[in-house]
Structures
1.
Amino acid sequence: MSALLLATPVLADGVIGFNVDALAHNFWALTVDGLTYGAIYALVATGYTLVYGVLRLINFAHSEVFMFGMFGQYATLMLLGFAPSGNAYSEGTLLTIVYLGIAMLGGMIVSGGTAVGLERVAYRPLRKRGAPSLAFLITAIGASFVLQEFVHFILPKLTNNELGGANAQQPIVLVVPSVQFTFLGASVTNIELIIVAAALILTFATNQFIVATKFGRGIRAVAQDPVTATLMGVSRERIIMLTFLIGGVLAGAAALLYTLRVPNGIIYSGGFILGIKAFTAAVLGGIGNLRGALLGGLLLGVMELYGQALFGTEWRDVVAFVLLILVLMFRPTGILGESLGRARA
Amino acid sequence: MRRTSSRMAGVALVVVAGLAVAGCSSKSNSGSTDTGTAGGGSLSIQPLVQIDQSGAEVKSSGSTDAANPAGDGKATCSGVSLAMAGALTGPNAALGINILNGAKLALKQHNDANPNCQVDIKQFDTEGDPQKATQVAPSIVSDKSIIGLLGPAFSGETKATGQVFNQNGLLSLTASATNPDLTKNGWNNFFRGLANDAVQGPSVAKYMVNTLKYSKVCVVQDDSDYGVGLAEQITQGLGSAADSSCAAKVKTGDKDFSATVQIVKSANADAVFYAGYYAEAAPFVSQLRSGGVKSAFVSADGTNDPQFVKQAGAASKDAYLSCPCGPAPDKFAADYKAQFNVDSGVYSVEAYDLATIMLKGIDSGIKDRAGLIDYVKNYDGQGLARHYKWNADGELASALIWIYQVK
């Protein structure tokens, strides 16, 4: 009896324990949360995927584009007259939607601008000189640090300590989560509905843009064969700028949705982990493939939470990357394959 | 085949999006009714009660008979100074500055009252980094006018530099380094002005069980040395009240705690104890509350920071936060604010008290390092925060913990 009592905590602490109960009890609640996060991953992943499709470049600074989006929408709300406070604002549904829309626009502008600026300052000079792809990768990582430290040290000086610095921003809360309905024991809140719906609409719209418009055709053409595309009269530089812009705009939208869910997550280091996860999602679904980004994002979001419930909450990142390795072992190009230009042309 | 399946996926996507939009718009009205209820006024961390290691309340001895740095105004001294070592720049500078300002206030009151004994405090910035601290330590000990050191501020740097100060016989009086092992090195020059971490864990655990009457507590810890050590002591102290089925681990830097929230929620515990820092505690408590978890939130000194309340807002209401640091008496807070134009912070009172003790030593005629160590070793007196009397190891004879609450 006493031996058993002694053995139990050792087992639970030492090796990985399987907590099937936690997973089974919370399965639908975890699914709802996972889809919410997955939707945000998917939006950010689209930025990685588009740039990779067109330039074969992994833009590691995209996580900072997202982080700038968080500050962008926050600053927009401050300009609209909202002050950070411990309490939530209650503006009524219609006005809240309008404010959120404006904030999202602000986030999109800041993120889009950052992405395009990053491309012009960091990547275009390298491209002009025909630098090897390794130089781009290192530049991307360097740019990521520069952007982070800008928000950490310089932004507070420029804004009289209103923005940036070592601590997270004091949240501005416009929407308080409230349960809308219960689905198989899992409560679904208004915020979760907004996030998933907005993310799906934006992903779908982006897909339509790439598939059905002239600009989209240009992007696909450059992704397929840059030289021929140029010969056919497509301006490669303009297409590259457009690609960064779309990726940035989606990251800005994701930033607003993320801060609805995690209002106190606006900090200079807040984009890093999410960016890596979104990149993982992009690779998981098949980098260079828009639908892959969506599928990869949703799958990753859900699997992470299942994994946390099953193995323990500290295993989140391990679950994400083991999943990635497993998928890549059997499908090296990701679940749906690399295909911005090729398959769907 | 592939083409049709992906087209199907596209159609499914539109349907889902449509449903989600419909669901959203039809429900958003009912959502707005809740929006106004999350009020709470302006919250702050208020001292609640002082406890001992069994979790029982110990009446605060009061600050009325506290040692006054001004003394009798007749002290004479010359050529002696004090030093302060700690983070004055860098990400942890806030604590170092709290300490430095507390000491400066004591010095100012002393110097104003004693025209014939002007003592200054030399500042040594370690950035809280053990490596930087080892670089500045030699310049502290080589300045022969320094006969007493307030600091080092953090445990890591104290561990790294303790040997140097000990060999040079320089009094090291810390207002904030709480690692229990620091007093086990046999340093006869090291004294700690507050309770250590080994006191905090058990005290808070017993307070939760005996006073707050919690019978089921989920212990959530981060991955820092501090969080892991504290969680172990809390879990041990809680005994059967610690529910291992909802114990969870998070990582420093995490902002999303969905899985942890769900697990804690289904456990339906009396309280959640978080062993970690405010940067994660704030989003964690917000997500607990927005996830519908009603359990009390208890945490320790890593969370006891105004930033916690600022970032968590209404979600931080009623949270219990412990700290070995004592609350600032009103007069001290007012003097401090008048002097530095900022509110006093964690460890300011301790720094004031400890600087006062060293100043009293100087006023009594002590001119050398050995004399000051001896003076502190035999000191027995009341300060603003607590009673100061040390045992042979350099720990306070009676080490108490304060419980604060966000109100």
Note: The two ends of chain A are 68 Å apart (CA to CA).
2.
Amino acid sequence: MIRLALASLMNRKATAWLTIIAIAVSTLLLLGVERVRVQTQENFANTISGTDLIVGPRTGSTQLLLSSVFHIGAMTNAISWDSYEYLQRLPGIAWHIPLALGDSYAGYPVVATTPAYFTHFRYANQQPLQLTHGAWFDEQDHIGAVVGAEVAQRMQLKVGELLTISHGAGGISFSDHDAHAFVIRGILAATATPTDQAIYIPLAGLGLVHGEYTASEHAEDDHAHHHEPPVYSLSAVLIGLTNKPLALRLQRQINNYTGEPLTAIMPGLALTELWRTLNLFEKALFAVSILVVATGLLGMLTSLLASLRERRREMAVLRAIGAGPLTIFGLLVSEAVILASVGVGLGIGLLFFILHFGSTFLLEHTGMLLRATALTSSELTLAVAIVIAAISLSLIPAWRAYRNALADGLTIRL
Amino acid sequence: MSQSTCVELNQLEFQWPGASFPLLHIPHLQIQQGERVLLRGASGSGKSTLLSLIAGVHQARPNQVHVLGHDLAQLSQRQRDRLRANEIGYIFQQFNLLPYLSAVENVVLAARFAPARVARLKGEAGSYHELAEHLLTQLGLAEQDSKRPAHQLSVGQQQRVAAARALFGRPALIIADEPTSALDIDHRDNFIEVLFNACEVHHTTLLFVTHDGSLAHHFQRAIELNEINQAAGGR
């Protein structure tokens, strides 16, 4: 029966292919959206790893996470240097990275930090940052900058070039810090995290820009000032602990710090919380792709129903050689199975083709990291669900053909 | 009812659902095995309905239609479909073939739903395709034409393929519903001759239905539907 259905479909090649392509494209979209959803969630969770606590001024955990990890949104408050020193003295601290945000370059966030960032920051599965060109800036370097992969690619930045940062996060700022240009020392490898979109400069360099700290004056002229704490304020501090379970206790302790209102969050938990708030968007995307699949399948239904009229002769011939109405019924269901399976197969093929050949392009241009890994069980379930939906829909034309077969008998009505 | 009876009608009455009077009322008709019968009737006289009753597509009441000893009313839909597949070769006026299959494949299709035809073919030498090609050659289709898709064949060639399909696997009865009305006179006579010869060889019963009385001289027996049908509704 499958062979007969195939032969019959081949006879209607044009419509059959169009139907298959419609199903393939909708499958591609549904599975693509599913893959983007799952892998984005993974990437999302990959943005930071190994950091046990993020400390910032008193604010909501999502806001602190967004500003410290994703460099989104401006913090109105800051942490004082005193508090930073207090944090360093806490027991069980393995490392600490100070972050000062608020400046930008061509709309990309500028993160002022210390070389500790490059030594201790980890993403994905404890992966350290790596450079494709140049080198890190060191403690003595006050005008060096390290540029994220995407910024470098988009803005065509090269090692050794000069960079002028602007105050504020906007793309165009009225207060460019023209007087203090930074020199690009290194360019980071792509990570599929917000790191790709950031520019890293030394904390002391930011101090220079903002006039909070002037290296030459302090270092050369006035030795009395040498032991005084610098005055720049921080947006957040990333902390690694020697003993992970300590995090909860330290979090409480920091939240109760009396010197200044502080917030400490555990990045894993905060990420999960944030992802949950993005759930709605994700669901909407999924709903849209389901609708596209429905459109594809309705296209198949239309073409099958339309074909019934022109195929009455075919059905009468089949009836004449002894095919029962059930065979006619089965024939139409088989056709739907063929159309849907080939369509879904083609869609999966297309998906992998795109993932295989387009993932580098996607990563460089959108920062989305999608891998051509094998179909997950949920993706497989979706694919099977499309075929099952196609079979269910084909019951309508199959039933009509069945009724026609009984009523028309051997007379060919045109 | 004798062993050699192929089709027997007894007090057949048939009325379409919703019709106000019966279309067919045939007190008696018997066709022996091996007989070649012409059934003549004007269009709309109930010919096609009678044929679909004999072919078991539509159902008559018990004891009214016997085909090869089976009371069709006693058989289920599936059994009637099976009986038709096995023992009845049906030839339409035209468009007999699945256009997307080759001539040979169309012929072989006859065995698709017919285990009895398959069993009879097993007794012969050669594969189904060889047997089908042989049959097509017998019916006068050139060898190179038997591989071509059906839609590329002329109407005359298509009717030969249809006849070959009806005859494939030696069913007991061939029902031909106006098989020559799409053919010109030369092709018509030639087709009838070829069909007769093939039926002769296998002792196949032929029920040939037409509106064209001029064909009657070819047949041993000619029946006027109007004469045997006493229904008022038979127009």
Note: The longest strand of chain B covers residues 5-14.
